[in-house]
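User: Sequence recovery, please. Input:
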């Protein structure tokens, strides 16, 4: 399989898709061919008789991937639940073998493939298997997206500790300001985490409004997000991943 990165979070709704789109667009702007994958998307809305994976669509747009949506997002589920629960409700079984096959094919034709999870590492994909198990199966290093708010320190350290315990490499974490008005926690989390872990902070994303992200459209503006991530994220820290030999 080729080179890839897995994007996880400290929780749900922390900005994983924003980070996936930003990295895809910024790296594409630097000349890399980027693949994207959202193995399972829950909470999909019905569009003309089909479930539409909004996050996967944003990733496709940001990366300018030629892959069809059904490969970028092989499993689409309507219930806004953990994938294992939503799949059980829908009578669908999620197969790691299919996800591995698609990732292998996709990563083999791209310089880097970004894979976005749902929630955090311990969210279940199957009854007894989590995203952490998928990460290990695909042999992917991880970026952790951190909701920069009260509680971020504990959530981040727990995620990093579990990844280390089971042998998952963490490239770094990205702080995402979700609150429009900074709190004492948002102002001090970066400093506290720097003192508590040797895992590097790749950068901090400022609070963004829908108007900033979308302009007058309905998707994420590629030029805006590319420039933002090239300015705010230390993309050079991804060089070891981009330059390493393809895993066997």
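Assistant: Recovered sequence (248 residues):
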């Amino acid at each position: 399989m080729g080179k890839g990165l897995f994007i996880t979070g400290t929780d749900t709704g922390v900005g994983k898709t924003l980070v996936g789109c930003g990295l895809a667009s910024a790296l594409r702007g630097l000349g890399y061919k980027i693949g994207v994958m959202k193995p399972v998307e829950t909470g999909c809305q019905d569009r003309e008789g089909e479930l539409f994976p909004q996050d996967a669509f944003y990733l496709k747009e940001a990366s300018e991937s030629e892959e069809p949506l059904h490969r970028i997002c092989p499993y689409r589920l309507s219930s806004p639940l953990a994938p294992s629960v939503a799949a059980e409700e829908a009578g669908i079984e999620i197969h790691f073998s299919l996800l591995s096959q698609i990732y292998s094919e996709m990563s083999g034709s791209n310089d880097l493939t970004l894979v976005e999870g749902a929630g955090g590492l311990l969210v279940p994909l199957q009854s007894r298997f989590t995203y952490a198990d998928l990460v290990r199966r695909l042999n992917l290093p991880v970026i952790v997206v951190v909701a920069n708010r009260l509680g971020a320190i504990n959530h981040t350290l727990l995620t990093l500790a579990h990844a280390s315990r089971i042998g998952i490499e963490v490239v770094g974490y990205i702080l995402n300001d979700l609150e429009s008005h900074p709190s004492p926690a948002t102002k001090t989390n970066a400093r506290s985490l720097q003192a508590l872990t040797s895992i590097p902070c790749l950068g901090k994303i400022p609070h963004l409004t829908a108007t900033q992200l979308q302009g007058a459209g309905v998707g994420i503006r590629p030029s805006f997000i590319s420039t933002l991530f090239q300015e705010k994220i230390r993309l050079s820290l991804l060089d070891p991943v981009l330059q390493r030999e393809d895993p066997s």
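The chain has one domain: 4-243.
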